[in-house]
Design a protein that fits this description.
The chain has 379 residues and is an alpha/beta fold. The chain contains twelve helices and 17 strands. 35% of the residues lie in helices and 19% in strands.
């Protein structure tokens, strides 16, 4: 009997170690990891530069509280603002906390309470971020949600315009809905949302927790659309496995979060900042991002070519190395078969196989994964 709450339906893999794109279980079996801890280990498991940075920080200090200056916070914050449209950063411990901070900032800055989000979105599991999420299954059994959120269909501008009113503080969206099924935002829709926010003095919050930090081939996914969000949230890949999140905001919002307005005990702790510093120094290099684009193009092209005649596969969608294989049936029985063959993949919605390989994945890794994917879907 386990002493853990049964909050996770776990796969039959008991991890002993991991390195790069390989996971080894307690029996010595190896798996090619195309889940990356749900887009967390974007540089692969135990990346040498990240490990070295954390080990060096371990020998200095682990925690002193945010009541004191932590120089690494300034360095990481500067890396984030220099590579985004933001000017200020608040560090926390997770994506949910980053989105919670974004919601609080938007409401406090505007004096309004309504936030519009989208059906099939996912923003976290705190009460505010659960309320922001446009999926009923996340909320079942927890009673009334915060009633200041309204959900409209994604990629539907007319529905968004109908929902917009003078009490709207912000519109909150994912450029690609990850948990919702790897649903890609239309370019025109994303641009129109940004224009709508400007026209109505509404803040635009872009949740980049899964799409950010190189996953789509750019530093942030919003860059594909040439927009300038007021607030950006990141987490997952920021620490490459160490828990850390961040909310990035524009200069006009800086005064809103003054002393005592928001806080965290562990957010921005030195170990997480050491990891984040090493991660960003690598991911924000243009050569690295171009390499991601090339790998993604190869993987997507091969998936379309090799699965074109497969009757189970309806579509290949996504951007960069965030890819969904849309199937005509529930994939919950297909994914365990791929894992049994040695390939870790994820599910997104009932009928989408989600691929989130490390951005450091090799062509040999990709070819190996393609073989397992096609073989399993043919069966």
């Amino acid at each position: 009997m386990s002493a853990l709450f049964p909050t996770y339906k776990r796969f039959d893999v008991s991890v002993a170690s991991a390195k790069g794109t390989t996971i080894t279980d307690v029996a010595g079996k190896q798996y090619l990891d195309f889940g990356s801890g749900i887009s967390v280990c974007n540089l692969g498991h135990r990346h040498p530069a990240v490990q070295q940075a954390v080990e060096e920080q371990l020998g200095k200090y682990w925690h002193v509280s945010n009541l004191y200056d932590i120089p690494l916070q300034e360095k990481v914050a500067t890396l984030l603002t220099d590579n985004s449209v933001g000017d200020y950063v608040f560090f926390c411990n997770s994506g949910a906390e980053a989105n919670e901070a974004a919601i609080k900032l938007a409401r406090k800055a505007t004096g309004k309470t309504k936030i519009i989000t989208f059906k099939q979105s996912f923003h976290g599991r705190t009460f505010a971020t659960m309320s922001a999420t446009g999926q009923d299954k996340i909320k079942d059994g927890f009673g009334p949600m915060l009633n200041t959120f309204e959900y409209v269909p994604y990629n539907d501008l007319d529905a968004l315009k109908t929902a917009l009113d003078d009490q709207t503080a912000a519109i909150m969206l994912e450029i690609i809905q990850g948990e919702g099924g790897v649903v890609v935002g239309d370019d025109t829709f994303i641009k129109d949302v940004a224009q709508l926010c400007k026209a109505h003095d509404v803040l635009l919050i872009v949740d980049e927790i899964q799409t950010g930090l190189g996953r789509t081939g750019k530093a942030f996914a919003y860059e594909h659309h040439g927009i300038s969000p007021d607030i950006i949230t990141v987490a997952k890949a920021l620490g490459n496995g160490l828990p850390v999140g961040a909310m990035i905001g524009k200069a006009a919002l800086g005064h809103v979060f003054g002393p005592g307005s928001h806080g965290t005990t562990f957010g921005g702790n030195p170990l997480a900042m050491a990891a984040a510093d090493a991660v960003l120094e690598i991911i924000f290099q243009e050569e690295f991002l171009q390499d991601v684009v090339q790998k993604a193009a190869y993987l997507q092209e091969q998936l379309r070519t090799q699965l074109e005649q497969n009757p189970v596969v309806e579509d290949i969608r996504g951007k960069g190395l965030m890819i969904g294989i849309v199937c005509s049936e529930d994939v919950s029985s297909i994914i365990p078969k791929m894992i049994e063959k040695g390939l870790i993949v994820l599910q997104a919605g009932p009928n989408v196989i989600r691929l989130l390989p490390a951005l450091t994945v090799t062509q040999n890794d990709i070819d190996q994964a393609l073989h397992i994917i096609t073989e399993t879907l043919e069966e």
